[in-house]
Amino acid sequence: MVGDVQADRVVPPTGFTARLTVLAAAAMAFLAVFALALSLATGRLAERWSSALTGSATIRITAPEDQMEAQVAAVLRLLETTPGIGTARLIGRNEQEALLTPWFGPDLPLDTLPLPALIEITEEGRGYDPEGLRARLAGEAPGAVLDDHSRWRAPLVRAASRLRALGLFSMLLITATTALIITLATSAALAANAQVIRVLRLVGAQDAYIAGAFMRRYTARAFTGALAGTILGALAIRLLPAGAREGSDGFLTGLGFAGTDWLLLPLIPLLAALVAFLATRATSLATLKERS
Amino acid sequence: MIELQDVTHGYGASPLLAGVSLSLAPGSFHFLTGPSGAGKTTLIKLCYGELIAGQGRVSLFGQDAATMSRDDIALARRRIGVVHQDCQFIDHLTVAENVALPVVVSGRPTRQIEKDLDDLLGWVGLSAHRSALPPELSGGERQRAALARAVIMSPEVILADEPTGNIDWEMSLRLLTLLVELNRMGKTVLIATHDLNLIRQAKKQVAARVLRIANRQLLAAGAEL
Ligand SMILES: Nc1ncnc2c1ncn2[C@@H]1O[C@H](COP(=O)(O)OP(=O)(O)OP(=O)(O)O)[C@@H](O)[C@H]1O
Ligand SMILES: [Mg+2]
């Protein structure tokens, strides 16, 4: 009945600060789940969109057969003098046929079809100015059309990256707030338990023992609270309306955890426990020193 | 063991104790008397490092209390069992847990002392109250629990501040007998008390020195005892 469990009983198991700590840790963990989901989702989005961006744009030239060669040459010449264009390559007829075969089958006599000429361009440096290029193309080769469908995403990629940074920053704030709350709760508990500390001192307890008793209590409380908060947060994300998780490209597509992302969740209560451990340790040792 | 050399200490402007010297040699038995407010409790607090002397030197097991760290003082306290005048319990722990506390904080597994704890609680007549909380005890029961806690570590020195203040004569004699027995085993004992009958009774069993605080000084008591 006086087992070694008693070591932890010296700090009263109940009280205002106990509930405060559990609740605060739960709330912070809940928020952390969303901040994490936001960071991961926007991270995935930014990655997907920016990889689409680095893909090349194409210039498609449709012209009567007798003008084709001249227009292609004009476009290639023009591209050479356009700043921001890395490479420009005319896609050969064989290559075009190879691209089309899967769609139309090998039997279609492609060589008899009037195929447009395709020029694949890649960007270089800070990229080209699509409006300027379009204007020049219109002047030099009326049959040329710039197809840069992925460029409109550039601001979105920036926004997604920014959102991801904000998500990570929120996690930092949540961690700091957790540390702050636990520090306050520990200070309050140390003040409320002055008599307990006094008696422990009188019977020969060293600082490390007294601080340890508070540290174990608060680490356990922070862990329990954060575990509950994480589970609730994860459930809330699981239960997001299905529409928000399907579809292909919308912002809400990815707001959730995919595959191995779930493995990050257990880190939240562990991090909360670590933060509580460090905050309680610093607070209690400082307080014990002060009140010698 | 514990030595006070030329100690002067007080709480305000005028000192309560002036130039007091005391040596608690191993195996000695002391009584400390004096009128209420004379400074008995203050003297005892100096002896276990709760108070640090304003002037003079207090040495605990050879170390100067004034220069000891908190943790060193804690280690010294494990060798000194104290019955505090106001008992000093942790109110949300049971009597048994409070009595075992010195063992728990010293990091020793309490399993080893289960039997000692039972014997001790039986000896001070608190077996039936072992699961009670301190606020539920009577004054005398609290003092008996405090005595049990003071001796559970089998300390080298026992300082008891009015241990029989709220206890009937019969129980007082039993506690005295326990302390005398511990003294025969080589422990150093100091008891602060107003109870002259207790002192007379003790003198029949043990060679006790009786000290008296009067006019800020510590004097050997007269032959009236
Ligand atoms: N922490 C303190 N601050 C200020 N004065 C104190 C403090 N502790 C004790 N005193 C004063 O010092 C004097 C001596 O107190 P102490 O407790 O040592 O007396 P005592 O001899 O033990 O008395 P009693 O027999 O009543 O227990 C008292 O006048 C008391 O008011
Ligand atoms: Mg007193």
Describe the protein in words.
The complex is a heterodimer of chains A (292) and B (225). With 292 residues, chain A is α+β, with helices and mostly antiparallel strands. Chain A is 65% helix and 8% strand. Chain A contains ten helices and four strands, in the order ααβαβαβαβααααα. In chain A, strands 2-3-1-4 form a four-stranded antiparallel beta sheet. Chain B has 225 residues and is of the alpha/beta class. In chain B, the strands form two sheets. Chain B has a six-stranded mixed beta sheet, with helices on both faces. Chain B has a four-stranded antiparallel beta sheet with strand order 2-1-4-5, with helices on one face. Chain B is globular and about 45 Å long. At the A-B interface, helix 1, helix 7 and helix 8 of A face helix 2 and helix 3 of B. The structure holds adenosine-5'-triphosphate and magnesium ion (MG). The site of adenosine-5'-triphosphate (ATP) has 11 residues of chain B, from helix 1. Magnesium ion binds next to helix 1 of chain B.
